[in-house]
Task: inverse folding
């Protein structure tokens, strides 16, 4: 019997055990933010210090998204989540979530926050090009996208 093949099997068993253990730990983590603030760090969003974010009004960000391209901002609004929807709108309340009167949001797990929750989001802006045929988010309807790193729940 080849001694080397026995070591290879043992290494594979140990590796599989570690994968199962870490997967179980990740699956058991509490992903909800009910009643508390949350720090998101999706693999797509860069890490940064949220205290250095530039406060900007949602209306200003919508009106001049290119001005904030690549910048770390802090913006307030009502988060709306649903089927093919993840956006920050003026409000609450939000009269028509499909009106695209807000900005698209990336980096938040679905159903993490209640719909129309008043929040302050901190993240990096990705602006749609002014000369582009389409914008950001679902169906390219949104003028900007925010890659979220932190969310603070607000009282409506």
Result:
């Amino acid at each position: 019997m080849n001694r080397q093949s026995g070591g290879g099997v043992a290494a594979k068993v140990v590796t599989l055990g570690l994968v199962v253990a870490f997967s179980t730990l990740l699956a058991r983590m509490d992903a909800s933010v009910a009643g508390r603030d949350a720090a998101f760090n999706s693999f797509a969003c860069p890490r940064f210090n949220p205290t250095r974010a530039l406060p900007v009004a949602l209306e200003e960000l919508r009106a001049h998204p290119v001005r904030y391209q690549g910048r770390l901002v802090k913006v307030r609004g009502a988060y709306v989540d649903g089927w093919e929807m993840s956006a920050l709108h003026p409000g609450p309340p939000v009269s028509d979530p499909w009106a695209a009167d807000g900005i698209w949001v990336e980096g938040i797990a679905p159903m993490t926050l209640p719909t129309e929750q008043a929040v302050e989001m901190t993240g990096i802006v990705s602006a749609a090009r002014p000369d582009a045929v389409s914008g950001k988010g679902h169906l390219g309807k949104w003028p900007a996208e925010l890659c979220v790193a932190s969310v603070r729940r607000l009282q409506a």
In short: The CA atoms of residues 74 and 101 lie 18 Å apart. Strands lie at 38-39, 54-55, 72-82, 85-89, 103-106, 117-127, 144-153.
